[in-house]
Specification:
DUF2157 domain-containing protein, GDYXXLXY, single chain, DUF2157, membrane, 696 residues, globular, alpha+beta
Length: 696
């Protein structure tokens, strides 16, 4: 017990310190100069990697976390360099450069956390290449298809050649995610005509392979999830084009086929899989997938049929139909197949909830009372889970219709589900569903966006911290896992809050991390705990890790030197611009800039371009012509004395120069709304660096 508490304390301290560092730099503290920021970031990397080396072989747990901290600090340093020198916000280059050493370290050390981080960085690099945040790209149909298919193929190759499930499973899910994006983006092109058939055939082939040939249940379950999502998207796409009776009836038939196929599979799989713990988990998860897919299709179809067939709209007809036609038979038919019962129950609850806002409070309260008795009395876990979720949704509708304070509504929902969880624990049962719902409601209640920050806001945050701390030290593994997930989500939620300044937040988190670290060290020594020592890495692995770490420092130092040289030696160019105000994930607030040279109508295709800028009588440099495209001089343009060449990358007529982001201190974006000019340093070879923006 003491060892687990100490490990949890170390992990919490590490999370607080890393979050505090991110928040500190994201605040873009204007009082701190470039040299100080760079020095702190490099010192942070050196501290983490040095601690990891010092603890190697002595303290396995802490040494591993320090290595992960070093990897994360390298990414933070890259983001900071981008912030200092106004490089692109959330650039795919940032994540791609961050990915390279992370993937190498993951392969050398075989650390599962580093493997997961590497897969996440790969997806972020792909995402921000296709959906850049600092500028907009109009992809052609085949360029869009080619890039998205390449992203899916890269993840597929990871699945095929990876020996670690920590890499393979996230990569497999990402592969299907990109294949789905192909279909979604295809709505605006012509791919929605033929791509669904290709993806459907692929899904069928993968389902057959994983369930019948390879018998890999994990991949089969993931494939089933994406197959259900694909069916749901395609069905609603068809409804938009053909809202007719035949299609709605077809939706009911498809939901029945999905349900029947799931029942048949579960009967066969249950013979050889349900005896083990992993087999039981798989069958329960697959059952949930079948229920979700079939019920989603059925609810959409039933609602559509009612709108087409009914002469007058009456929410009570659908509500009582959901109760007596679906919910009640599912409750009474205890000898029926469990998947059928749960699907009927999900359809009934979902169909009834769609019309609850138009029902009287008295009817809803009576229904809620009946469901509450059912949750307490019914021993079947599947029925309890579905009814608990439905009860929370119905209760939210009642509270929302009779209260004005959204935070109070959420706190009441959290209290209700917390009471359900406590009652189940008192009876000696495990009930994760009410705990998840309680933490979800409480977590949303801690957001400043629910209402103005007040005493209730502070109380909600204190309650959330106390509850998470309580469950993080629980013996039950399921509760600890849930608590860790919500702890990470809570930090993310706090990051995007506006009421608590990022600088103050970073100082508070850093202080909390130091206190937790000191407490964990004291507790470890007090209990005389001895964590297992880690065997030293082979010499070639240690040498490889050292080379990667040195390369990270060299790259960071060279990047800073290059940017400083450009600031010192580059020519100053004044450009007209149009500002916008979004936010970066890691780097804080920034102004998104668009120049009058960002669109060049004579360009086509994509590649590298050199654009000539010519100074006007007002001191503003404007477009003079295209000097070169992909290394070849552009015909018809004559360069004049004084013209400045600037490098860019073009996508059709859109040109990106790498100076589209200007980072500002937190919550100061409004001060820059009137900025109309940008001052840019341009080197002799055409590289540009944004120095400042202003109204004149």
């Amino acid at each position: 017990m003491a060892a687990r508490i100490v490990k949890t304390g170390y992990a919490l301290a590490f999370l607080c310190i890393i979050a505090g560092i991110v928040y500190f730099f994201a605040a873009n503290w204007p009082e701190m100069g470039r040299e100080a920021k760079v020095g702190i970031s490099i010192g942070m990397m050196a501290g983490f990697y040095g601690a990891s080396a010092a603890l190697a072989g002595r303290h396995r747990f802490l040494g591993r976390w320090m290595l992960i901290g070093g990897v994360l600090s390298f990414g933070i340093s890259l983001a900071l360099v981008g912030q200092i020198y106004n490089s692109h916000a959330d650039s795919y280059w940032l994540f791609l450069i961050w990915l390279a050493p992370t993937a190498l370290l993951a392969r050398l050390t075989k650390d599962p956390a580093l493997s997961v981080i590497a897969v996440v960085l790969l997806q972020l690099a792909c995402w921000f290449y296709y959906f850049p945040s600092a500028y907009h790209i109009e992809w052609t149909e085949w360029a869009s298809f080619g890039w998205l298919l390449l992203f899916a193929a890269i993840n597929g190759a990871l699945v095929r050649f990876s020996r670690s499930p920590w890499t393979a499973y996230p990569a497999y899910a990402a592969m299907h995610g990109w294949l789905l994006v192909i279909g979604i983006t295809g709505f605006s092109y012509g791919r929605d005509v033929w791509w669904p058939y290709v993806y459907a055939a692929l899904l069928v082939g993968l389902l057959y392979y994983f369930f019948s040939v390879a018998k890999q249940r994990g991949y089969g379950l993931l494939t089933s999830l994406f197959a259900g999502l694909f069916l749901f998207i395609q069905y609603h796409r068809l409804l938009v084009d053909h809202f007719e009776t035949w299609l709605l009836l077809l939706g009911l038939v498809v939901s029945t086929i999905v349900l029947y196929g799931g029942v048949v599979f579960l009967r066969r799989a249950g013979v050889f899989s349900a005896r083990t713990r992993a087999g039981k988990w798989f069958l329960a998860a697959f059952q949930a997938v079948i229920t979700l897919a079939a019920s989603s299709l059925a609810i959409s179809s039933l609602l559509g049929l009612y709108f087409l067939w009914a002469d007058t709209w009456s929410p009570y007809v659908l509500f009582f139909l959901s109760i007596f036609g679906l919910v009640l038979p599912a409750w009474l038919g205890r000898r029926w197949n469990a998947v059928v019962r749960y699907t009927l129950l999900a359809i009934g609850y979902g169909l009834g909830w769609t019309v609850t806002w138009e029902l009287s409070t008295v009817v809803l309260v009576l229904y809620i009372a009946v469901l509450a008795v059912g949750v307490i009395r019914v021993p079947e876990r599947g029925m309890q889970r579905l009814t608990t979720v439905a009860l929370t949704l119905y209760l939210y509708v009642v509270l929302d219709g009779n209260m004005e304070n959204g935070r109070v509504e959420l706190l009441l929902l959290a209290l209700w589900n917390g009471a359900l969880y406590a009652y189940s624990r008192w009876r000696g049962k495990t009930a994760a569903t009410p705990l998840v719902l309680a933490l979800s409601a409480l977590g949303i209640a801690t957001s400043v966006h629910i209402s103005e920050p007040d005493g209730l806001y502070m109380a909600s945050n204190l309650a959330m911290v106390a509850v998470l701390a309580f469950f993080l030290f629980q013996r039950r593994r399921r509760e600890r896992t849930i608590a860790w997930g919500y702890t990470v989500l809570y930090f993310v939620l706090k990051y995007y809050e506006l009421a608590w300044n990022l600088l103050h937040k970073s100082v508070s988190l850093l202080a909390a991390g130091v206190v937790l670290l000191a407490w964990a060290v004291w507790l470890e020594k007090r209990n005389r705990l001895h964590f297992p020592k880690e065997a030293a890495w082979p010499r070639n692995v240690s040498f490889g890790v050292l080379l990667i770490v040195v390369a990270q420092f060299l790259f960071t130092g060279y990047t800073v030197w290059e940017k400083e040289r450009l600031l010192r030696d580059g020519q100053v160019v004044k450009l007209a611009l149009e500002p916008v105000d979004p936010r970066s994930v890691l780097q804080g607030d920034y102004i998104r800039l668009r120049y009058d040279i960002s669109t060049i109508s004579s360009l086509d295709g994509n590649g590298k371009v050199k654009v000539a800028l010519r100074k006007g009588p007002d001191g503003v440099h404007r477009f003079a012509g295209v000097y070169a495209v992909n290394g070849e001089e552009w015909p018809g343009f004559k360069r004049q004395q004084g013209d400045i060449l600037i490098n860019g990358t073009f996508y059709s007529t859109q040109v990106v120069y790498g100076i589209e982001s200007y980072f500002v201190p937190e919550q100061s974006g409004e001060r820059w709304r009137d900025a109309r000019f940008a001052y840019v340093r341009v080197s002799r070879n055409g590289d540009a660096l944004l120095e400042k923006i202003g109204a004149e």
